[in-house]
Amino acid sequence: MSTDYNGYITADTIEGGDDGPLAERTVAVKDNISTEGVRTTCGSAMLKEYVPPYDATVVERLVEAGATIPGKTNMDEFGMGTTTETSAFGPVENPVAPGYVPGGSSGGSAAVVAAGDADMALGTDTGGSIRCPASFCGVVGIKPTYGLVSRYGLVAYANSLEQIGPIAPTVEEAARLLEVIAGPDDRDATTRDAREEGSDYDYAAAADGDVDGMEVGVPTQLLDGADERVVETFWAAMDDLEAQGASYHEVELPSLEHAVEAYYVIAMSEASSNLARFDGVRYGVSGGYDGNWNETFARAREEGFGDEVKRRVLLGTYALSAGYHDKYYKKAQDARAWIQSDFDDALSEADVLASPTMPVPPMELGESLDDPLTMYLADANTTPVNLANLPALSVPAGETEDGLPVGLQLVGPAFDEHAIVRAGSALEN
Ligand code: GLN
After folding, report:
1. β-bridge mates for residue 143, sequence order
2. Ligand 1 centroid distance, CA of 146 (Å)
3. How many whole angstroms from 20 Cα to the centroid of ligand 1?
4. Is 213 a member of any domain?
């Protein structure tokens, strides 16, 4: 196993069952998903020695399906980042574009798949963390409909936004992995049975490449301001879909301009509440008690959390505080409702929506950490989908002239993963 690009935090093997749909396959698991007896760090010094006493539901399902887990993958600390450079275990290098970031926060998961060090991987996507690294590493990633996949055993960053999902070399393999992990779970009350939503779990069968007659909407807001090399590659891929019988039209979704702001207010607010448990007493490195619990907690957090996590806990606490709650958190919830209704309208006249997954190609390593606002803006195309609870897939669309991977994002109606799988598979032809 080549590990010089730093894809794994812990390379312990968890053996799968003897048979099942994933027998003989390896599936790497992002390090914020609990694995019984194997440390689960969330990319944080806070949890550098944390060993969960139980498996996440998705891990149980992988093992039952026969998959072997080759290790836990590197990630931005607690999922907070777009480059995998906020990891306390060092950055991941993009295996297909040396010197560049692999995207984030599931950068390790996409990198090990792109490098061939795992057949497939699980990532998590709160605001793009599966689709961004899939796009930057030239592989496929799916962010499922909210409620399709159990979050039991996922260390929470922003519960109302995140889903666990597959990363794989092809759309069909990603769809097959989704079949294994999808479905209701008594231990996560936000899960739904797709069959009760008028759907089914046969995602891999939808990877038939048949887009004849399919109608694709292109939200113009998601092309404005994107890098020209990305826009060019995107339109070439759209021409390819059209040549296969699909048609496309442009759509306006004015609310999307506010998605990044709304996303960061909601994500940071939820994070500030979720991360309160890392106080060195319940979880995390000890702050050493010397008579004052407030100081004990402060020392644990000072030592355990990196800069990006501290920034978000502070901003989230501020946005939720009594005097500012209406001004920020409530406004962000209003924007979220507006985004949801814009997507509903657009999807009433299209089978899927298409855009570049990321407005920019992969950044150079070391380029983006000191400018958090610019980094947040890179999430412009992915965050709206989480706010709307919809499924989305990133599929390789080609490369820039300088050889950097570009991903195309397809967004579908809730619980219609089939539509995005079908359209995505056509782009692989
Ligand atoms: N880049 C986004 C953030 O930092 C998305 C992260 C994610 O999806 N976990 O919050």
Report:
1. 392
2. 16
3. 33
4. yes
Residue 223 maps to a domain: yes
Q: Both tokens of residue 314?
A: 């502070």
Token reading at 133: 């690294």
Active site residues: 30, 105, 129
Pocket of ligand 1 from Cβ distances under 6 Å: 79-82, 105, 125-129, 157, 267, 379
Distance CA 196, CA 193 (A): 5
The DSSP bridge partners found for residue 27 are 120
> β-strands 247-251, 215-219: how paired?
parallel
Q: Which pLDDT tens digit goes with each residue over 142-201? A: 999 999 999 999 999 999 999 999 999 999 999 999 999 999 999 999 999 999 999 999
Integer Cα distance of 427 and 12 in angstroms: 35
154 backbone φψ class: left, alpha, beta (φ>0; ψ -120 to 50): beta
Ligand 1 atom with minimal separation from the 80 CA: 4
Q: Look-up: residue for tokens 């990006």? A: 308
Domain extent at residue 197? 8-255+337-428
- Cα-to-centroid distance, 125 and ligand 1 (Å): 7
- Residue 321 belongs to a domain: no
Is residue 352 domain-resident?
yes
pTM score: 0.98
Gap between the Cα atoms of 9 and 291, Å rounded: 36
Residue 405, pLDDT score: 98
The domain that contains 382 carries what CATH number? 3.90.1300.10
How high is the pLDDT of residue 3? 56
Tell me how many domains the chain contains: 1
